[in-house]
Amino acid sequence: MQRSQSEDVESRIDWGIVFCVLLLALIGLASIYVAGTHDTQQVSVVRQVVTQLAWYVIGTILVIVIMQFDSEQLWKIAPIIYWIGIFLMYAILIFYSRSYYASTGAKSWFAIGPFTFQPSEIMKPAYILMMGRVITTHNSEYSVHSVRNDWNLIGTMILWLLPILVSLKFQNDFGTSLVFVAIFAGMLLVSGVTWRILAPVAIGGAVVGGGALAMVTSTVGRHILEQIGFQAYQFERVDTWLNPSKDTTNQGYQLWQSIKAVGSGGITGTGFNNSHVYVPVRESDMIFSVIGENFGFLGSILLILIYLLLIYLMIRVTFDTKNEFYAYVSTGVIMMILFHVFENIGMNIGLLPLTGIPLPFISSGGSSLIGNLIGIGMIMSMRYHHHSYMFSSNQEFH
User: Residue 5: which pLDDT band, with cuts at 50, 70 and 90?
Assistant: First the structure.
């Protein structure tokens, strides 16, 4: 019995992933509405929600377009979009928005009229594609893993990462640098590199991180860190993280208010649009405080479960397709989303320092949303073309 074309297309779409993203979109729009309603800046709530909805429509179109690309086509365009991304990452250092720089201290946004664009968010999926190609190429050339071959792979991956980190350094965007490092670490972990390398590197990273944290808490250590480029605001964020109640009216105000908002939600929350605690910039980086206050512990746990389900479904697609290049790409996308969720929720409740990282599919902002949806599009492409190939083969067999 032959299947209709529409039935075939429907079977090639992972509706579980679509459902999860749709739920997150609805939660995001509702949270942005609440944040805007209680914002003291008297912003247009309707405009905020409609703008975010428009970005969702644009992102959905991009997902549909990207789904049409199979692994061979994604492989071919990976270097092209990587270098386009690098060009934009360095062009922003000249053509950055002066008004955003004055308010945030970061040279990370282009501004065209009322619209802003952050090239680093689009660079993330481009970097993931390029790293998927680099790792796959290396493993096809060196079928046997050895310490020497694995160090060559690590060196190659670092060379592709360095131009991005250098640009982000000049943009004063440390938070986004951490995202790229997380993507790098996740893809390296599944690349097949021997544990004889990974274990010492992981231990060394932990020692360096712990040492840097210890240096921040001492005067001499801070002076050394200042000499290598650390900024005053970065020290202030660490101070606020270590002791959020020390300065609740100045540098620690935003974090302290977020902790109060989440805490006031209790088990079941205060109810939709029933917010009592003001949190600055709540519609973007601090959006989790809206969910924690309005829907409480139970609502927060439900949100985390939706993210876990989304990640599980993406992992399942990877195992179903059994494509090495796709496996590395999906790992990068999963690490990108997972790190955003972990860092954003962690900083909203005081477990991690403030880094300005948005909550995927929920925080207000078009660039971040588009970048995440491009990642979803690449995952959806796996299922879409895997089923297409299976159906074609069955037709030929009969």
Answer: low
Q: Which residues, including other chains, have CB under 8 Å from residue 183's CB and lie 6 or more apart? A: 124, 127, 128, 131, 332, 335, 336, 339
By C-alpha distance, which of 372, 345, 272 is closest to 31?
Answer: 272
Q: What pLDDT sits at residue 395?
A: 38
Q: What are phi and psi of 116, to 5 degrees?
A: -125, 155
Compute φ and ψ for 356, nearest 5 degrees.
75, 30
Contact 120, 174 (CB under 8 A): no
Which residues partner with 111 through β-bridges?
A: 116
pLDDT tens column, 140-186:
888 777 888 999 999 999 999 999 999 999 998 888 999 999 999 99
d(CA 230, CA 346): 22
Angle at 309 between CA 304 and CA 312, to 5 degrees: 125
- Three-state SS sequence of the chain: CCCCHHHHHHHCCCHHHHHHHHHHHHHHHHHHHHHHHCCCCCCCHHHHHHHHHHHHHHHHHHHHHHHCCCHHHHHHHHHHHHHHHHHHHHHHHHHCCHHHHHHHCCCCCEEECCEEECHHHHHHHHHHHHHHHHHHHHHHHCCCCCHHHHHHHHHHHHHHHHHHHHHHHHHCCHHHHHHHHHHHHHHHHCCCCCHHHHHHHHHHHHHHHHHHHHHHCCHHHHHHHHHCCCCHHHHHHHHHHHCCCCCCCCCCHHHHHHHHHHHHCCCCCCCCCCCCCCCCCCCCCCHHHHHHHHHHHHHHHHHHHHHHHHHHHHHHHHHHHCCHHHHHHHHHHHHHHHHHHHHHHHHHCCCCCCCCCCCCCCCCCHHHHHHHHHHHHHHHHHHHHHHHHHHHHHHHHC
pTM for the whole structure: 0.90
Q: Residues 134, 76: contact at Cβ < 8 Å?
A: no
pLDDT confidence of 243, banded at 50, 70, 90?
A: confident
Question: What is the band of 392 on the pLDDT scale with cuts at 50, 70, 90?
Answer: very low
Distance CA 88, CA 109 (A): 10
